[in-house]
Write a structure and sequence with these properties.
This protein is mainly alpha-helical and 98 residues long. It has helices spanning 2-15, 18-33, 42-57, 64-75, 79-97.
Amino acid sequence: MTRLALAWVRAAAALLPHSRRERYSEQWRADVEGAREVGLHPLGVALGALRVARRERGPLTVPVPAIVLVLRLRESRGVGAALVVLLLVGLGGGGLLY
């Protein structure tokens, strides 16, 4: 169970900006390894790390040309444009469309 929690901690650290990654990764690994000593479940600690990583990551920044492209394709009636918009939505750009 601790190995799974440590894998989640590695994934959480990978979400962070490079400048903070090492510090948080080291702290979270120690927290997971010592969780049982203080009565916590290692997976609970790892889930907390994932939540912090998502918060620390900050807002998603998208290059302006991508936003312009999506907005123009959104108004298009062509099948190709619809497929590109669907692809962008599938890649996590759904928030750009509305």
